[in-house]
Design brief:
Layout (H helix, E strand, L loop, with lengths): L1 E2 L2 E2 L6 H8 L3 H8 L7 H13 L6 H8 L4 E7 L11 H16 L3 E7 L6 H6 L6 E4 L6 H8 L5 E4 L10 E5 L1 H14 L5 E4 L5 H16 L7 E3 L5 H14 L6 E4 L2 H13 L9 E6 L3 H4 L5 E4 L2 H16 L7 E3 L2 E3 L5
Parallel strand pairs: 3-4, 3-5, 5-6, 6-7, 7-13, 8-9, 8-10, 10-11, 11-12
Antiparallel strand pairs: 1-2, 12-14
Length: about 350
């Protein structure tokens, strides 16, 4: 580029830009960071010069100075359900909301799907030096490990249950017992008296949902507890297992509480294959209120946990912990979404 016959000065460093703007390097650094300490006119002029000369600050140098990486780890631990995929609609929904918030706040995201075979799997992540904090999508059956690490590593927040006595790690989630009660109450109101629960209760959130369904049935004066049927979340196993379960309990149940909308949607397909009408012959209630609940036929009656709000609460709590502040766990109230399946 030439100006008036002369080569324009090359701008490679903050010092180069400072000489061009006639200010100190510190002023340039603050202006590029958008700091209000710099006069607005000066800040705008410096930013315009940076754009004109295609100048980008050295992010690595900046991160070395601040001892920050600018990266947040998002980790999906699969302890109890090792074959579950990241393409699972719940993971994709939660991940989308987390990514939106993190990138809007200027952070990059590092995603890991972890099979926790080694006892120190979480230590390896938090001690890598590659990230400023960690968000866990789910606790799986790894609460002991999460608690151990959280005692020394503060910037750690998980999606999931937050009702453990003396819990150290920050958690954001819905009240799963209350959500289970909503599902059970809906099934009872639709006339169901013999209910099956489809879900793997090794995960604490799923266990709480089962307990809530059982509480609703007991409160209605029903002596029979829900029939708990282990159901994998891995898509390549789910339909076959649900089909086997329904064949096993054929004629014994008139309502199904599914631990997730994905399980509920798959259950609808299996019931349709067997000519069982929903909800006339079998009422079905899901959990989560994912977009697929509206796409299913019939549309799924489900328990809604506010995933968008949950993602924002997780990131806000993590940022507070990164800043050295306390950030208590958050438990959100679930709501029943009445549709066509139950």
């Amino acid at each position: 580029m030439e100006q008036n016959g002369y080569d324009a000065p090359r701008v490679r460093t903050i010092a180069d830009l400072a000489r061009l703007a006639g200010v100190s390097p510190g002023t340039v650094s603050r202006a590029l960071a958008g700091k209000t300490l710099v006069n607005p006119e000066t800040r705008d002029r410096i930013q315009a010069l940076a754009t004109e000369h295609s100048f980008r600050p050295n992010q690595m140098a900046s991160r070395l100075r601040t001892q920050r990486t600018g990266v947040i780890g998002v980790v999906v631990p699969l302890g109890h359900e090792r074959r579950q995929h990241l393409s699972d609609p719940f993971f994709m929904t939660m991940l989308g909301f987390l990514a939106d918030r993190l990138t809007e706040d200027g952070y990059d995201l590092m995603l890991s799907r972890v099979i926790p075979d080694a006892a120190d799997w979480l230590e390896r992540i938090v001690d890598s030096g590659m990230m400023d904090g960690v968000l866990l999508i789910g606790q799986s059956d790894q609460i002991g490990t999460i608690e151990r690490v959280a005692r020394r590593y503060r910037p750690l927040v998980a999606w999931g249950s937050s009702n453990l006595p003396g819990q150290v790690h920050g958690a954001v989630g819905s009240d799963n017992v209350a959500g289970g009660r909503l599902a059970g109450e809906r099934l009872v109101a639709r006339g169901a008296r013999r209910v099956a629960f489809l879900g793997d209760v090794r995960a604490p959130e799923i266990r709480d949902r089962f307990d809530g369904v059982a509480q609703a049935m007991a409160a209605a004066g029903l002596s029979q507890t829900p029939i708990q049927l282990d159901t994998p979340l891995a898509s390549d196993l789910m339909e076959r297992q649900i089909a086997a379960h329904l064949d096993q309990v054929a004629g014994q149940i008139d309502g199904i509480a599914a631990a997730s909308d994905v399980i509920a949607m798959t259950t609808l397909r299996v019931l349709a294959d067997r000519g069982i009408r929903v909800p006339d012959q079998m009422a079905v209630v899901g959990y989560d209120d994912l977009p697929i609940a509206l796409s299913a036929v019939p549309r799924i009656t489900t328990v809604r946990q506010d995933i968008r709000r949950g993602a924002n609460e997780m990131v806000s709590a993590l940022f507070r912990r990164i800043a050295g502040e306390d950030a208590p766990s958050v438990t959100m109230a679930p709501t029943l979404v009445e549709r066509d399946s139950g």
